[in-house]
User: Fold this.
Amino acid sequence: MLEIKIKRLDLAHTWTIARGSADYKENVFVKLEQGGICGFGEAAPNVRYGESAALTVTRMKAAAPVFEQHDLFHFEELAAALAETIRDQSCARAGLEMALLDWVGKALQAPLYRMWGLNPARAPLTSFSIGIDSPEVIQAKVEEAADYPILKIKLGMGDDEAVLGAVRRVTDRPLRVDANEGWLNKEEALEKIRWLADQNVEFVEQPLPAAMVEETAWLRERAPLPIVADEAVKTAADIPKVAHAYDGINIKLMKSGGLLEALRMIHLARALDLKIMLGCMIESSLAISAAAQLAPYTDWIDLDGNLLLREDPFRGVRIERGKVLYNELPGLGVEGDF
Assistant:
């Protein structure tokens, strides 16, 4: 019923953020087959959360019996059983649940966004991410991204002025800034954000380490830009603990453990008057298309992980000038070579 494999995804450019650099990622792909229908899923392990491709495969294999014990159409019940079985590799849950929901959508012959009654035209524009690099390479990346109206810039390695200066020498487009926990004290972060407020920046993502909740609350009270949580929030259970410290949250399927938990996070965040961003890891069009099913619910999206790849093994939603373009294929709307 389940087939699992690791694929190496080479990046078009070295990807550098405050935590380190990579030239490729190893993601785990899964195929769920029953009744002549195949559902596909993808897991993107992240060392920040103690994940690896090998551990992800191990957890997926251990969870395989869950699919034999449940009716696949009872996907809420099955997803809950997966959460009980896999507790430490949320990306493994996300990949398996993704395959499950793709299967269900195909069995019902409907795109997932239509099953949820969502209007794809309401999806906001996605940003395009520029990793930390030399000023010359940053400028080249910005010029390559000329078709994207919003850019996301990675800061937090000590050369923030040089990075932003390189961007601003070639474009005045709106920016979103992600420090990836790179600023280590609240006073420094406040000084940086006050500077960024004059640079056509929309918001700042995870300026301080996730554990510095009260320092972030102090920062939020004084900062002239919205503060968005990323590493500080994985699942719905985390949101009430940090809601006072942030203006919004970044939901990623690989953190939440899948689309169903992401939906719960969206509804809770709305109830707490938080803005919602939908983000991603370095992923193929398979996982990006899965996340895009939720985009109409959100305020901001950053679904560009597939755009950073040298070659993409799947085809799904397309991005044109930042706009997410959906197809009418059932399930997640993806095609490709497993």
